[in-house]
Amino acid sequence: xxxxxxxxxxxxxxxxxxxxxxxxxxxxxxxxxxxxxxxxxxxxxxxxxxxxxxxxxxxxxxxxxxxxxxxxxxxxxxxxxxxxxxxxxxxxxxxxxxxxxxxxxxxxxxxxxxxxxxxxxxxxxxxxxxxxxxxxxxxxxxxxxxxxxxxxxxxxxxxxxxxxxxxxxxxxxxxxxxxxxxxxxxxxxxxxxxxxxxxxxxxxxxxxxxxxxxxxxxxxxxxxxxxxxxxxxxxxxxxxxxxxxxxxxxxxxxxxxxxxxxxxxxxxxxxxxxxxxxxxxxxxxxxxxxxxxxxxxxxxxxxxxxxxxxxxxxxxxxxxxxxxxxxxxxxxxxxxxxxxxxxxxxxxxxxxxxxxxxxxxxxxxxxxxxxxxxxxxxxxxxxxxxxxxxxxxxxxxxxxxxxxxxxxxxxxxxxxxxxxxxxxxxxxxx
Length: 430
Known about the structure:
The structure is a single chain. The protein contains 21 helices and ten strands. With about 425 residues, the protein is of the alpha/beta class. It has a six-stranded parallel beta sheet, sandwiched between helices. A four-stranded mixed beta sheet has the order 8-5-6-9. α9 packs across α10 (about 175-195). The two termini are about 15 Å apart. About 45% of the residues are buried.
């Protein structure tokens, strides 16, 4: 394990407060998910349906992107394609400068974290205040998110209370309602002053030109309706063919992410026509940043099915022990250990992340689109192993673990092989 990664892991292991906060939050989310998933008598059918619509979209990506552009722009919106993070940052800062925008509100977007948009806007003299409560907390603290759906999961109520006292000048409180009210008061003023709103997108629909945005706090709703300019940012893989394709995904998304049957708000958004309410300008920036190359990979392309629910993080024993910052990547946990090797500008630094896994298989069991994450982690480990013997043994282990029957038959042989090669069992999780 590289020294920097080892240092981050050891730091997390030595932080008792962080470990307690992360473990409690993950246990709560996993228990809530289990309750609402148990209500679905046809969970496996729903999962196959959700995977099928995502698979169809990836198999017809270029065709669907072209159809979406036509649909979205027919309504008055503008689609921009960014090949990498630099181009994505330049497009968005260029749009805002051209519009004379100086301050705005931003709702949750992991893709904006992926391309370092916040830093680029600051350098351009443009202020974008995070309006999701968790993102607002980590922005105040000057930290990156530690979870893809719960950015401040690693923080206790006391630490948030102290942070609000220091940065917002309010009396200390650890009461969630008091802290939420303080954040709401601060943010409402920012919504009214905003020149622009900026958001991520859960899905976008080629058939109709809709953007689909899922949230619980209503902050995205204000950001996409009050300012005169709205910019959405997402990866090209989030396209869907038909509006009806959203149904199986929305049925599982909130259940997997937060243990809710449905999120509090689900927006189906299209560009405003003249005379209607809403922003006068609507832009969607679609980011490649390694996604097309990942799609061309016969094995690892499966990771692009991910709908970013975070269920695999919540149930992962490694993530639940050290939290997200230990990974040192935008996307942490099991899904992040794979995705960080495929997309973004720091792919070369993510090579050791697949080793932060026990390969217990829990991430595969909870994934709403049935991504075989352990198989992908093993594939990355095999590719990174330099000695031929290690690489061959890891490929054998990956092949064996892909089938319950093979594991039952060949498991003792696999363990015997691993025991003959120093360090292999640690690398492949045996």
